[in-house]
Specification:
Distance between the termini: 43 Å
Structural class: mainly alpha
Order of helices and strands: HHHHEEHHHHHHH
Strand order of the largest sheet: 1-2
Number of domains: 1
Helix content: over 70%
Largest sheet: 2 strands, antiparallel
Amino acid sequence: MIELFMKPKKAERRPWEMFFVGLIWASISLLFVTFVFGKDSILKEGSGLLVVIFTVMSCLPFMYYIIKLEEGKDIEINDSGKLIKEHSKAIHAMMWMFLGFVIAFSFWYLVPSFQVGPFAFDIDHGQTFNFQIKTFCAINSPSNYDYCIEQHGIPAGTGAVTKSSSTLRIFANNIYVLIFTILFSLVFGAGAIFILVWNASVIAAAIGIFAKGSLASLPMGVLRYMIHGIPEISAYFVGALAGGIVSVAVIRKDLRGEGTWKILQDSLLMVIIAIGILVVAALMEVYLTPLLF
């Protein structure tokens, strides 16, 4: 039933609609976890992962069918330029969906509680985003981790790091995530969406920490992390699509004859494009974002 909510061909024609789909899926998943598992002393400890899992479950059908659609284009289209242009439509739709995830998670991070009729939702971001906050602190304040966890704030720098080494460190980390995304999509097909939803939730926690509990600061927080986040995440989507296309081709037994080289060549080209985008994203994160914030 969920797969009928947004069809891939319609998403490619009107990709901006996927923003609202992502917004709805993420919000329903978070509220479901809060309402159903929030009062369970055991399960609430895993709220950060449960929110991601339920969001992934919601969008898995869409991801599978859009990857299947793109794999079909590899068979039908011979021109590489036209093929990349066609794939960009899917990336565009998925990026809008990702932005919907980020906005939804960020909003609920900053909203403490509300009530709809007889249903009361008490959203404790320290509980609902517990794993995301730990990830944020591990990345941003490894030497002062406990204090960061306690305060849920953005820490000061922990040491002098040159811009060149920062760029290399960030790029190396992004390449690691890209490789993991490609491998995950090769093995599980549309399952790579788990990594991408997880990244959306971590970015949302970072935005919430940056906004310091104020909804008025939410737009600035989104801008702070999306300047370099959009190209970075788009690279992961390109990698996920590349791996997913090969995975679907194996399932549909399309890796035969001339079709084999066409599909593998297209996927390899997409991986190269993803690496190039990550280089640009790392430079933006180190040199551009600090100039603006």
